[in-house]
Write a structure and sequence with these properties.
The protein is about 5% helix and about 65% strand. It has 1 helix and 10 strands. The strands form 3 sheets. It has a 4-stranded antiparallel beta sheet. The chain has one domain.
Length: about 100
């Protein structure tokens, strides 16, 4: 069984026990978060209607905060002596999918 969930403006394919890196989430290490399901596939059955998807719940446990790769930014204007160097590392949260349950 797997599900497509919306996390941080992106859609990710997840199954139970998958470790996923998503945009920064508020919360402590070890706390539980819930993601809205966009599509659920259970064997041969595919659930995509919004009425049925409201019953499904995808839960995950926060493992910790991580940072993405360093991005170097260079501003340069020729003939003026203007140079500016900046960098950026995007903060992410690592989560482990603990369950995909169908509600009532």
């Amino acid at each position: 069984m797997y599900a497509i969930v919306r996390a941080g403006g992106k859609q990710e394919k997840v199954a139970v026990d998958d470790v996923l890196t998503v945009d920064r989430l508020p919360g402590e290490v070890g706390s539980t978060v819930t993601f809205p399901a966009v599509l659920v596939v259970d064997g041969e059955k595919v659930v995509s209607s919004s009425a049925e998807l409201a019953k499904y719940k995808v839960t995950a446990e926060i493992l910790g905060a991580v940072k993405g790769p360093k991005i170097n930014i260079m501003h340069y204007r020729s003939k003026t002596g203007y140079k500016r160097r900046m960098g950026h590392r995007q903060p992410y949260t690592e989560v482990k999918i603990t369950g995909i349950e169908a509600g009532k």
